[in-house]
Amino acid sequence: MLLAVSGIGCPHGLELAGDGRNGDGEAGDPGMDIVASVCGNGVVEPGEECDGDPLRPCATACSTSGVRACAECRWESTCAPPPETCNGRDDNCDTICDEGFECCAGATGRCDGGCRTCSASCSWDACGAPREEWCDGLDDDCDGRADDEVWCWLNPQPTGLAVLDLWAASPSDTWAVDGTRLLHWNGSRWSALPPAREQSPLALWGRSGDDVWEVHGAGSASASDGTLHWDGSDWVAVSLDVPVLVQAIGGCATDDVWVAGYMGAAAHWDGASWSATHTGSTARLQAVWANSRDDVWAVGDEALHWDGATWSRADVPMGERLVDVFGFASDDVWAVGSTYDLVLHWDGTAWSAVPARGVDRLYALWGASPEDLWAAGAAVMHWDGLAWSDVTAEVPSLVPEAYGLEIRAVHGTSASDVWLGGLPGALVHRSDGRWSALSSGTAYLAWLQDVWVSGGGELWAVGWDEWDGGAAVIRCDEARCSEVPVDLDGGLTAVWGFASDDVWVAGWRHEESFSHGALLHWDGRAWSSVSGAPDSVLSDLWGCAADDVWAVGEDGVVVHRTGGASWGSVRAPTDASLSSVWGISRDDVWVAGNEPATVLRWDGSSWTETWHEGWVPQINVVWGLSGDDVRFGDLEGDIYHWDGTSWSREYAPESRADSITDICGSSPVDVWAVGSGGLLLHWNGTRWTKQPSGALGYLDGLWCGPGGGAWAVGDYGTILRRNP
Fold first, then answer.
1. What is the rounded (10 degree) CA torsion for 224, 228, 229, 233?
2. CB of 380 within 8 A of CB of 390?
3. pLDDT per residue over 624-668, tens digit each?
4. What is the CB neighbour count within 10 angstroms for residue 384?
5. Residue 47 φ/ψ region, left for φ over 0, alpha for ψ in the -120 to 50 degree band, beta for the rest
6. What span, in angstroms and rounded, lies between the C-alpha atoms of 475 and 713?
7. Which end of the chain is more exposed for a tag (fewer CB within 10 A), N or C?
8. Strand, coil or helix: 28
9. Half-sphere exposure (CA, 13 Å, Cβ side) for 503?
């Protein structure tokens, strides 16, 4: 029964019985005078979630921005997806990208005589020749496979190297370089070109979205290799005849571009060709900025100015080395240096210091206006026309705050479109006054040593974390990686598994100033430590079944898990430090080590020594496809092959600084090896050739899947993937 009630305590004319409130002036609330809320009166009353409320934003099942409606004073359980728009995504969650349009933006497809690309307006471009495959999740060469036969970063993404330079044409068109490859932002995601074979991309400058330059070295600091020019559809090589490394580029027009580098080298592009110019300096030049054809600055160990006819030297306070230069007019130019809080300003007559107090190092400059200038390095600083302010705390980082920020590049198109790039592959964007990370990754400070990939594509990588000193475990699916907590004061060197709930890891633990062996198992929920693990540090794992797993380590230690329950020692005829174990079956297992160099073969009951060639450097890995097709790699970069009868050296490196750390393959004509300095080798059945990996530190672990897929892990949390 609904009763009309008057009284100032009940502004809507209703009071719920038993609500504990005295809305009508009574001394108490006996719980009898009012009974229910009214749905539809526009007021959210007790027992209602909403009443005439506007649509509420929500996230759909496909991660787009949808809405929930209020129905019968309850929020609908389903998040209604938005209508489909042309953006290269499935907005309405029906698994169809850009439904209702001609094609999905950014997609590629076959056409008569070649390949075509779907434009940003969701219409097919003209048919042309297929381009090389990029790391972008698309079938760029129109062969029916995406990202095939190229090595792409899985962690961090889109790169794990330092972003050295940035250049933005628009909010949906930005380029970056990381020293091994070019990266591109299309407004929704980053993609990457394959790593350059013999090139080292260093710097970028552009005039428009179809007029962008990249300058690179020839893989060393001794000479420049050339430049690349982007015409809106492809990168084209343009020769640069400069005898020393060029590492800076800038300009003011399509036919007025400058490069500069070591030994005062400079060259000019006039719209048709590059020509070297004489600066009169032997300084290392690291940055170029051009205001006009007769107003160009090149800075580094010196500050040089071009007046349209000649270069001249300008005095710099304290004679400091400058690393970047940017300006707005001939009398409003800024430069930063690599020493403490060095910021300089040119007023048309002289350079003067305008310190950014408390900043350790600054590497990059860019601004939208004289009242909106950014300087970045170990901090991010903003100039508002009057003073510098430190906004570092607003910028997200992939490393712990105490480790410190390292920004190497800044660029943008407006006050609301600013990019920062740096370590570790950091790409941070400012839009609508807020910074957000558009790169991702985990355990950047981890030194990853080994990798295992399940048949379903789940990846496990192990190592140790330089930051906290503990073991590191990373698990990845097709798109993302995350850390799996493990309580181990030490490090992990090996991983092997049979399913996502049956994974073994091995390594060492610290105890009373000594290192002892560690062996742990993951059951899908938690880690358990193997009791009675060997005292010696363990280095590798291999198994052919859940009840047949091997581990090896220092002092000739070999342990074997049989029967699906217990681990036991297997006596090996060596006290060498064993570094690797691999097998074909239960009765054909190989182990290798060093000091002295050792290769042993287990036949199910006893060991046979197969290496009799005398001393060789440390053997890091043994692996094979069959009993008469086995390889091992050593500390000095050699690869030896066993043909069933004898060993022969199959590969000798150009430099003894190389080191082979792991080997794997999918067939006799598809074998990979990794090692120091991002070393990546491929065997095609006839010979070994170097391949670009895109990594610079050690690659220590390698896994090969059926059909040619491969994964490599290494320093700084590096995880690379190659699709077949």
1. 180
2. yes
3. 999 999 999 999 999 999 999 999 999 998 877 689 999 999 999
4. 11
5. left
6. 12
7. N
8. coil
9. 26
Alpha-carbon distances, residue 450 vs 584, 626, 693 (angstroms): 19, 22, 17
Q: Are 162 and 422 in contact (CB under 8 A)?
A: yes
Q: What is the dihedral of CA 685, 687, 693, 697, to 10 degrees?
A: 120
* HSE toward the beta carbon, residue 508, CA cutoff 13 A: 18
Residue 16: the pLDDT is: 43
The answer to whether 276 touches 267, Cβ cutoff 8 Å, is: yes
| 451, 703 contact by CB (below 8 A) | yes
Q: Are 582 and 542 in contact (CB under 8 A)?
A: yes
291-296-297-303 Cα dihedral, nearest 10 degrees:
-140
CA proximity to 375, closest of 393, 395, 361: 361
Contacts of 357 (CB under 8 A, 6+ apart): 341, 388
Q: Is 348 helix (H, G, I), strand (E, B) or coil?
A: coil
- Residue 9 is predicted with a pLDDT of 38
- Quick check: 456 pLDDT over 90? no
Give the confidence band of 614 by pLDDT, cuts at 50, 70, 90.
Answer: low
Higher pLDDT, 268 or 468: 268
Residue 310: CB partners within 8 Å, gap ≥ 6?
none
Q: What is the DSSP letter of 132?
A: P
C-alpha to C-alpha distance for 11 and 719, rounded to whole angstroms: 63
d(CA 606, CA 473): 34
Distance CA 57, CA 68 (A): 6
Tell me which DSSP letter residue 654 carries.
S
pLDDT at 393 over 80: yes
Rounded Cα distance between 340 and 321, Å, is: 11
pTM: 0.83
Q: Convert the pLDDT of each residue in 99-148 to its tens digit.
A: 999 999 888 888 877 888 888 899 998 888 777 888 988 888 888 888 88
Say how many residues make up the chain: 724
Q: What six digits make up the tokens of 334?
A: 């800024």
pLDDT at 3: 36
Tokens of 605: 């009951």
Nearest to 462 by CA among 492, 422, 421: 492
Question: Which tokens hold the place of 270?
Answer: 């006039």
**DSSP label at residue 341:** T
Q: 210-249: buried (b, 16+ CB within 10 Å) or exposed (e) per residue?
A: ebbbbbbbeeeeebbbbbbbbeeeebeeeebebebbbbbb
Q: How confident is the model at residue 321 (pLDDT cuts 50, 70, 90)?
A: confident
Tell me which long-range contacts 15-22 makes (C-beta under 8 A, separation of at least 24): 16/45, 16/46, 19/46
Tens-place pLDDT, residues 395-415: 998 887 767 789 999 999 999
Cα–Cα dist 2/660, whole Å: 85
Preceding amide of 156 cis, omega within 30: yes
Residue 671 to residue 719: CA distance in whole angstroms: 19
Q: Which two tokens stand for residue 320?
A: 């400091």
Question: Can you tell me the distance from the alpha carbon of 564 to that of 412, in angstroms, rounded to the nearest whole number?
Answer: 59
- 592 Cβ contact partners less than 8 Å away, ≥ 6 residues apart: 578, 579, 580, 581, 598, 599, 600, 611, 619, 621, 622, 632
Hey, what are 525's tokens?
A: 């929920």
